């Protein structure tokens, strides 16, 4: 459903106010990272999945847990290890001798928010168990499909690939993550505050939910009704096509990337209190949404270019539509 500009975001739903309340709650634990918190909220409202990548100890898992604790919904945490099996993630059919029938035992993925901790420490076979879940919101076991609850968000953390004991995520897996973000080290003031606040207590223990699954579903529906002009839609397609033509890349962005970029732009506009998407919403999200999907060509890799730099260059050369 497409709205025209000027219509309210949704009946009795204030995306900006509700989003600000969730973000403020998460920021009580994840201090000094407002941009990271906002991006995680954008991904949630875009019905996407978030990949948090950085070195150990900077708060990746804390961010995932804080967002999960801020929403009164079902939450499951999966610690990915080399010996984790696909059935541990999705579930398994077990034979019941009393009923003489197979009974499905749901895996850890059956929750509203799934925290996949250190996802790249598991084998590619186990990582691939999430492919159907993330794209189709269902699990198929022995030919029977089981729907997952809505909202459904996978927040995965991973360590840099050069660290020992990690496996690269398959291209199909990376493409299913709406955005990737790096936490980075906290600022000096935030780190000093952390030393004071967390010396004897865990701030997550006192974090109360400020929303529930039903309210998040209403926010997602409201975001989906935001108006997107033809110019903005063409701008998204132009950016995606530019990655496919870039001489610095051997793999550009997929059509799924364009869809998720537009959904994220809708969520960003709604959180800003607007009822239509602007080109700036697309530009602000292009790097976190597109960069992790791209594969550098040989010359770019030798020249130590990064996918983020390539996307920034494409943003600078792709014409921005005027007006609304």
Outline the structure in words.
With 324 residues, the protein is of the alpha/beta class. The protein has two domains: 14-196 and 210-216, 3-Layer(aba) Sandwich (Rossmann fold); 226-324, Orthogonal Bundle (Helicase, Ruva Protein, domain 3), CATH 1.10.8. Helix content is 43%, strand content 16%. The protein contains 14 helices and 13 strands. The protein has helices spanning 15-27, 34-45, 60-69, 86-90, 124-127, 131-136, 171-175, 188-197, 213-224, 230-245, 255-271, 279-290, 298-302, 307-317, and strands at 50-53, 71-72, 75-79, 91-96, 101-106, 113-117, 138-141, 144-147, 153-158, 179-181, 211-212, 249-251, 295-296. Strands 3-6-9-1-10 form a five-stranded parallel β-sheet. A two-stranded parallel ribbon has the order 2-11. The longest helix is centred in the C-terminal third of the chain and has 17 residues, at 255-271. The protein is globular and about 65 Å long. Mean pLDDT is 87; it is low at 1-11.
How would you summarize the topology of this molecule?
Elements: H1 15-27, H2 34-45, E1 50-53, H3 60-69, E2 71-72, E3 75-79, H4 86-90, E4 91-96, E5 101-106, E6 113-117, H5 124-127, H6 131-136, E7 138-141, E8 144-147, E9 153-158, H7 171-175, E10 179-181, H8 188-197, E11 211-212, H9 213-224, H10 230-245, E12 249-251, H11 255-271, H12 279-290, E13 295-296, H13 298-302, H14 307-317
Parallel strand pairs: 1-9, 1-10, 2-11, 3-6, 6-9
Antiparallel strand pairs: 4-5, 7-8, 12-13
Helix pairs in contact: 1-2, 1-3, 2-11, 9-11, 10-11, 10-12, 11-12, 12-14
């Amino acid at each position: 459903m497409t709205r025209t500009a000027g219509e309210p975001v949704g009946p009795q739903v204030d995306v900006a106010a509700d989003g600000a309340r969730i973000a403020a709650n998460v920021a009580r634990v994840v201090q000094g990272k407002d941009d990271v918190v906002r991006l995680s909220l954008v991904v949630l409202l875009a019905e996407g999945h978030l990949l948090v990548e950085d070195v150990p100890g900077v708060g990746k898992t804390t961010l995932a847990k804080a967002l999960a604790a801020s929403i009164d919904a079902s939450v499951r945490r999966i610690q990915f290890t080399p010996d984790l099996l696909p059935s541990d993630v999705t579930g398994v059919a077990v034979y019941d001798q009393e009923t003489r029938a197979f009974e499905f035992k749901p895996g850890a993925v059956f929750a509203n928010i799934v925290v996949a901790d250190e996802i790249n420490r598991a084998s590619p076979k186990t990582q691939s168990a999430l492919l159907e879940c993330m794209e189709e919101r269902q699990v198929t076991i022995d030919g029977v499909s089981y729907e997952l609850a809505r909202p459904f968000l996978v927040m995965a953390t991973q360590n840099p690939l050069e660290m020992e004991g990690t496996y690269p995520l398959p291209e199909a897996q990376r493409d299913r993550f709406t955005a990737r973000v790096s936490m980075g080290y906290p600022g000096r003031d935030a780190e000093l505050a952390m030393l004071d606040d967390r010396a004897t207590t865990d701030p997550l223990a006192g974090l109360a939910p400020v929303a529930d699954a039903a309210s998040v579903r209403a926010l997602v529906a409201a975001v989906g009704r935001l108006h997107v002009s033809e110019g903005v839609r063409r701008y998204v397609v132009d950016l995606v096509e530019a990655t496919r033509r870039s001489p610095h890349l051997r793999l550009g962005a997929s059509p799924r990337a364009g869809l998720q970029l537009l959904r994220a732009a809708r969520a960003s506009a709604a959180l800003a209190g607007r009822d239509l998407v602007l080109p700036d919403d697309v530009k602000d999200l292009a790097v976190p949404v597109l960069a992790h999907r791209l594969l550098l060509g040989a010359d770019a890799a030798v020249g130590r270019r990064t996918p983020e730099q390539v996307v920034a260059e494409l943003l600078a050369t792709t014409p921005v539509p005027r007006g609304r």
